[in-house]
Amino acid sequence: MLKLNAAQLRNLQSSAINAQTKRLSKKKQIYIVLDNVLDTYNIGSVFRLADAVGAQKVILCGGSATPPNPRIKKASINTTEIVDWEYRDSALQAIQQLKTVVKELQVVAIEQSPQAVAYNQFDYVEPVCFVVGHESNGVSPEVLKIADAIVEIPMFGINISLNVMVSLAIVLYQAIAVIDKQLPKD
């Protein structure tokens, strides 16, 4: 499998990233929806994370900035050129559209809520869509209503929450561990 370090990724020209590069990266049936995430460094970091876990696509929604954007590009170390992405007016619209294309899609919101279960106590399955929300307001209420599950990360200090990208990373790697255990052994 092709692996590039940060310097190599930063120096890639769009024309150098071709179908072969995308073909060589192993994709999981993971989709990431950013519901009005505003910080461009968070957005760029999510692209880098999406590449790291082999996500199918990042869907940017609402007020989320989109590539090309110099701050997104810097934080993503150019993975915006490798990870498939699209923009939708709302996360609700994005999820509804995704469900018409991806059958049996499990939608998991990462949010603090009375309905939430601990992220490490949930049974994730592929295909799965993770939704993270606005840095202050969280995932929109209409998305929480249609989510199959809401998971949260327990907080033991005085701070109420973690950074959007950090929360997503913790949950993604937990989900991959759960999903990988469900795969038949060769």
What integer value in Å does the Rg equal? 16 Å
For this structure, the CATH topology is Alpha/beta knot
Report the principal-axis shape. Answer: globular
CATH class: Alpha Beta
Spatial arrangement of strands, main beta sheet: 3-2-1-6-4-7-5
Number of domains: 1
Helix content: 25-40%
Description of the structure:
- The protein has 186 residues and is an alpha/beta fold.
- It has a single domain (24-182), classed as Alpha/beta knot (3-Layer(aba) Sandwich), CATH 3.40.1280.
- It has helices spanning 6-11, 19-24, 40-53, 70-76, 91-101, 141-146, 164-182; strands at 30-35, 57-61, 85-88, 106-110, 117-118, 128-133, 149-152.
- The chain has a seven-stranded parallel sheet.
- Strand 2 (57-61), helix 4 (70-76) and strand 3 (85-88) form a beta-alpha-beta unit.
- Helix 3 runs parallel beside helix 4 (70-76) and helix 3 packs parallel to helix 7.
- It is globular.
- The chain starts with 5 loop residues before the first helix and ends with a helix.
- The mean pLDDT is 90.
SSE topology sketch:
Elements (H helix, E strand, L loop, with lengths): L5 H6 L7 H6 L5 E6 L4 H14 L3 E5 L8 H7 L8 E4 L2 H11 L4 E5 L6 E2 L9 E6 L7 H6 L2 E4 L11 H19 L4
Helix pairs in contact: 3-4, 3-7
